[in-house]
From TrEMBL:
Keywords: Antiport, Cell membrane, Ion transport, Membrane, Transmembrane, Transmembrane helix, Transport. The keyword Protein biosynthesis does not apply. It comes from Spectribacter acetivorans. This is Sodium:proton antiporter. Residues 15-393 form the Cation/H+ exchanger transmembrane domain. It is found in: Cell membrane. The chain crosses the membrane at residues 58-75, 87-112, 118-140, 161-178, 190-212, 232-263, 283-302, 309-329, 341-359, 371-388. PANTHER family: CNH1P, NA(+)/H(+) ANTIPORTER 1. InterPro entries: Cation/H_exchanger_TM, Na+/solute_symporter_sf. Signal peptide: none annotated. It is a multi-pass membrane protein.
Length: 411
């Protein structure tokens, strides 16, 4: 257990980052970079203040909560008018680019580790396919970047988490069953399971998002609800969408994103409270997720690193992501730089961490340590590379359009 001194040190780190946040937002230093490094320094890689045991469950819980909130909040702020005008970009990336990414990733994983089964190779590829736009926040918030590109990245990042989960679960089930392990609670028909995930999840999201947006409008118009409790209402609605989908047999992550999309589009009142809530409570959850990731998972990943995990991590962040996205956008009218930009900005973060923990806790997967190492290494590289490149690449669009470099500072 953490002592009061350890807790005080962590809180001082949070305070220091908060005090410097305005300056850091316009630099190459990002929140995930700072707190993953801070976690490593105070955790198993450094001072060993954070205990190794029982932390997987903690990081799993925090990562899941954070991911649900991020998906719901990001979706609620999607400009549907702009999305309707440029829906082809995220549609191509999801329907063509994502399957190609999983296929290419599976082929490479099996080529690098031929002793592993095809199911394990598919599992690794599926875990590392979802993206996390929050790792390059400048990209999805900069006015210098064309809206169609920002919307494309945001929508793809929101939906690919949920779409990848059925593939992750199916690959994990087959991998575990291949070892002769009896997997409890697994459906007899994995195809039906996958269909329920991608059908009932969005349905739950639509119902919850629409009904509770209407209810909130009514409460605001009648002056029944205070401004602070609008954030609490939003928080509860996001989790309700997730829980409703899971109870119905659907995918909770897809429900969270679709629910947020419907909620934000249906709500007639101002949605400013969502941004304010996520800039406070949402950021705090993200801090602790990456803090524990750096403290516990990074040392475990480094402990089992091999040349194979290094090759896979680099490949998943480069050719395995960029090439499928490039091919999916052929004939879209985008310039070569825009295609490379969309391909490059597929950071790996919360979803990959959550999926790895979810699967390795529940199933006996052959080579589990190596899988965790590959995921950790990929996320580590992504935190640094996508964090460092976000501002410069956004700045190139600013130079093209004549806009000033994006900044959050007020005069």
């Amino acid at each position: 257990m953490l002592g009061f001194g350890d807790i005080a040190l962590i809180l001082l780190g949070v305070i220091a980052f908060a005090a410097l946040s305005r300056r850091l937002e316009t630099s190459m230093v990002t929140l995930p970079m700072v707190f993953a490094a801070f976690g490593w320094l105070i955790g198993q890689g450094g001072a060993e203040l954070v205990p190794m045991h029982a932390e997987h469950e903690i990081i799993h819980t925090i990562a899941e909560i954070t991911l649900i909130l991020v998906l719901f909040a990001d979706a609620s702020r999607v400009d549907l008018r702009a999305l309707r005008s440029h829906y082809a970009i995220p549609a191509r990336m999801l329907l063509v680019g994502m399957p190609l990414t999983i296929l290419l990733g599976t082929l490479l994983a099996h080529w690098v580790t031929p002793d592993a089964s095809w199911a394990v190779a598919l599992l690794v590829a599926a875990i590392l396919t979802p993206t996390d736009a929050a790792l390059g926040q400048t990209v999805v918030t900069s006015p210098a970047i064309p809206p169609r590109l920002r919307q494309g990245i945001n929508v793809e990042s929101g939906l690919n988490d949920g779409l990848a989960l059925p593939v992750v679960m199916i690959a994990a089930i087959i991998s575990a069953q291949g070892t002769g392990t009896v997997v409890e609670g697994v459906p007899d028909n994995v195809v039906v399971f996958a269909l329920m995930q991608v059908v009932l999840g969005p349905l739950a999201g639509v119902v919850i998002g629409y009904l509770f947006a209407r209810m909130l409008d009514a409460a605001i118009n009648a002056r029944f609800i205070t401004t602070p409790f609008q954030g609490i209402y939003f928080l509860a609605t996001a989790f309700l969408a997730f829980v409703a989908a899971e109870l119905a047999g659907g995918n909770g992550l897809i429900a969270a994103f679709v629910g947020g999309l419907v909620f934000g589009h249906t709500l007639r009142s101002s949605t400013t409270f969502i941004s304010e809530f996520m800039e406070g409570e949402g950021q705090l959850l993200t801090m602790f997720t990456f803090l524990i990731f750096g403290a516990v998972m990074v040392p475990l990943g480094i402990e089992h690193v091999t040349w194979k995990t290094v090759v896979l991590a680099i490949a998943y962040l480069s050719v395995i992501r960029v090439l499928p996205v490039w091919l999916s956008l052929a004939g879209s009218g985008l310039s070569s730089y825009e295609k490379i930009f969309l391909g490059w900005f597929g950071p790996r973060g919360l979803a990959s961490i959550l999926f790895a923990l979810l699967i390795l806790e529940r199933f006996a997967i052959p080579g589990g340590d190596e899988i965790l190492s590959c995921v950790v290494l990929t996320v580590m590289l992504s935190i640094v590379l996508h964090g460092v490149s976000a501002n410069p690449m956004a700045g190139r669009f600013a130079q093209r359009t004549g806009l000033a470099r994006p900044s959050s500072e007020n005069p």
